[in-house]
Structures
1.
Amino acid sequence: MKLTIIGAGPGGYVAAIRAAQLGANVTIIEEKEVGGTCLNLGCVPTKSFVASTDLLSKTHRLEEYGLELHGKIVPNLSKIIERKNKIVNTQINGIRNLFKSWGITLKKGSGILISPQKIRINFPDASEETIETEKIIIATGSRPYELPDIPFDGKKIISSNEALNLSEIPKKLIIIGAGIIGCEFACIYKELGAEVSIVEMLPRVLSTEDIDISNLFARELKKKRINLYLNTKAEKIDLLNEYVHVILSNGKKEVAEKVLVAVGRSFNSNNIGIERIGVNIGSRGEIIVNQKMETNIENIYAVGDVIGEPMYAHVASKEGIVAAENISGLNKNIDYSAVPSAIYTHPEIASVGIREQQTEEKGIKINIGYFEFRAIAKAHTIREIEGFVKIISEKKSDKILGVHIIGPYATELIHEAVLAINKGLKTKDIAETIHAHPTLSEGLMEAAQDADHKAIHMKKQ
Ligand code: FAD
């Protein structure tokens, strides 16, 4: 069976490998670089920056660890970027080698659907080729959303793409949007020494997270002296001399060298020929698929950011696997009931399942187990005591519905909860499981015990 995939991000390249494992003859078309947004301009580069800034942050607190520094540590942005590029290139080579080992053909060019069996590839040297195929997966991803009134100029008004390759640390950075990308860059550039302001239209930061997480994180931003404007719109932008002047809806004006607009993503569903063959798209341009990742046109599948939320690399990859398995004759459905979200701010944030505010909207009766990292010995040994674990369970059945963590290594700790929700476990299942001491994972155990008022390291209420 001949399968052609357009886009080699975490949706497309994972689908390619899974389909090849199952015996398909796979061609993958990529116009930029394998790994997509995630590897080249997203997950991996930002986390490489975070590794540098986390270390830098610790060096500012060396005395707290009984250490002395005789000298000065300063961030060197070009070296941080060089390190990031090296990591990205290693991973690019890794994906290319996987393609070779599985016999996957990579074509470097832009793919456009001509019919459900034909794709034209436009190569960078202006030559073209039309290939025939039996099945197609569209995995073209997304790009930064551009505000109509505040268009990107790539220099002073930038997107996350440019924020990863600045020539110097700006003295002042204004970030429009307090979503995941905006908050991650706020923490990175603040730690590198920039003055940072965030402007957010909604009443809270990270508005899709549990309300307690948003509230604590907003306090942490303030502690870092990041200016936070909530319920505020960036109404107008003027470029004057070297600076960007941002007029806010509260009447104030913020002036900075750079403005990072991080207000969401646009779907790469235009210019790929899908209108011509009648693939259904939603009102925002997302391709519409069913639980098997099939579009309305037979033999055409779509996965990843281009089909809309939840827009994470791990979701794109899972959707890619489901599409590849269905194409290969297995009968699989995507299941979004236990999708972790991981936010690499300081402190880290991770969550899975229902938020407390959603249980109120849905009228679900719940129990909440809550445990703070400051009551955990390991958190003190690593000097990261801010944050908590919150477990939401159904009152009647004790079944875990949602887990929300803000604190050290939250993005690693969440997976015990992801497994618990995926397997329909109860708080008592985590509460009664022996967790190693001293670990941060004890926070999950104690939060689960607190759901039944049995947490050991908590005062009598
Ligand atoms: P993409 O990764 O966007 O890949 C699509 C590919 O298709 C691209 O390589 C593109 O060049 C190619 N393409 C498009 N059109 C064509 C065409 N016509 N022909 C050929 N090729 C084409 N997610 C996480 O899970 N964790 C994180 O920590 C995280 N951090 C992020 C940080 C930032 C700054 C950003 C911007 C995103 C982050 N994300 C993160 C989101 C994550 O990057 C995306 O969810 C993920 O990349 C989606 O994968 P995809 O394969 O659907 O699309």
2.
Amino acid sequence: MDDFLKRLPKAELHLHIEGTLEPELMFALAGRNGIALPYDSVEAVRAAYDFSDLQSFLDLYYQGMSVLRTAEDFHDLAMDYFRRAHGEGVVHVELHFDPQAHQARGIELETVMEGLGQARRQAERELGLSTALIMAFLRDRPAEEAMGLLERAAPYWETLDAVGLDSAERGHPPSKFREVFERARLLGIPRVAHAGEEGPPAYIREALDLLDVCRIDHGVRCIEDPKLVARLRDEGVVLTVCPLSNVRLRVVERLEDHPLPQLLDAGLRLTLNSDDPAYFGGGMLDNFRACYRTFGWSKEVFIQLAGTAIEAAFMSETRRLALHRQLADCA
Ligand code: ADE
Ligand code: ZN
């Protein structure tokens, strides 16, 4: 089974590129940029990754990214991740990135786009990895700031595969960003949003009804609302679920308590993803392995999950067909 899970062509639809920053690279970049870290060693960084909720993680996540300053840093961050993902049998990566968090530190959007763009082209060329780019708005910042970012991103509208919504969910409902997402819709940019990670099922409804998203990131708290589950099934809405993230951020106590099996039984379209692999103790393969160990799913279930990810990905139809073929060969 382990060999099968590794060979399975996995498309990752929910990943924050800043959340792939391993402590080793954090130290290397801190050294290169002359930045002092509040840790003595790589082990001390890892030891600090003991989270009680989403906010306690976000505090370290925003602190960790302070070492990213130049286009080369963003390139190295992304390439480091693409190489690891490729080694785990990942064939397509959709990366969220958080421009407002960088802007707040004086790092311009152009710098981030240049570094990520170089890495994406290199990954395609050297690893055969396809990628997509999702520009995320920070929901705990004002909607006006998000609108400003969307306008500033005008030179890149054509290169964005989607816009997303992330950061601290509680108290920041999707409705706050209705106009920003409406503007993105008019520009022809697809939309996704985190909803129902820590926030209530009502936020999932709002994301669908007010932000017109084509996928929900996380969405696991839909399980509390049977009518919503029925709606998600009827409308074929895809949830990008992140099992190990949900355990580490205490959305569920243990993976055994995760609603994944119930959501699958209810006929929802689900994908498995890593979210912030450097912080949550594992990448795509670890998430697939953990689900196998905990739920004992058959190969067919994993093929279904991998197939849904290929169906729901932002990629060319040629690429989609090639990956569906690769998946069929794997079975
Ligand atoms: N930003 C990075 N990881 C996140 C998560 N799991 N939820 C919300 N915002 C995030
Ligand atoms: Zn996320």
